[in-house]
Design goal:
Blueprint: H1 21-37, H2 41-46, H3 54-70, H4 80-84, H5 92-109, H6 112-137
Helix pairs in contact: 1-3, 1-5, 5-6
Length: 146
């Protein structure tokens, strides 16, 4: 029996999370679980990605984020054309919601510095896509704020 006046051991610091392929896998899979469950984005993705095609999409997204965050060079693709094909589903509300789901997921699944880098990249990418979509629609792109 431990005497009542014995101090408790100091809490152990959690092991720092590493930025590795496993962290990227967790980020991508948790994020797209949230996307699929989302009232706004779920139908957009569900209408374009068949249930049996999700593993391929998730693997491609893991390749993308691995290339961005780990400089692995695994992603080979052009992400803009599929977004241009979304039409009205690629509006401001959809991009805002995408970022609103991505930010906390990155903070939860990645080490702090990597999370901030991923969020900054996602924000730049969303802005770039929003500009390109507006341009292709013939809209005034000078009024699109980051």
């Amino acid at each position: 029996m431990i005497p009542a006046d014995t101090p408790s051991p100091a809490p152990q610091a959690a092991e720092p999370r590493a930025l590795d392929e496993e962290a990227i896998f967790r980020l991508v899979h948790r994020f797209y679980d949230r996307v699929r469950d989302d009232a706004l984005l779920g139908p957009v993705f569900g209408g374009r990605i068949a249930p049996e095609a999700w593993p391929v999409h998730l693997a491609k997204m893991c390749d993308f984020w691995s290339s961005v965050l780990l400089k692995s060079g695994r992603y080979e693709g052009r992400p803009l054309p599929p977004h241009l094909a979304l039409g009205d589903d690629a509006g401001e509300a959809a991009f805002a919601r995408w970022l609103a789901l991505f930010r906390p997921t990155a903070l939860q699944e990645l080490p702090p510095a990597a999370a901030q880098a991923a969020i900054a990249h996602a924000e730049r990418m969303a802005y770039s896509f929003r500009l390109a979509i507006a341009f292709h629609r013939g809209e005034d792109t000078t009024r699109i704020a980051p």
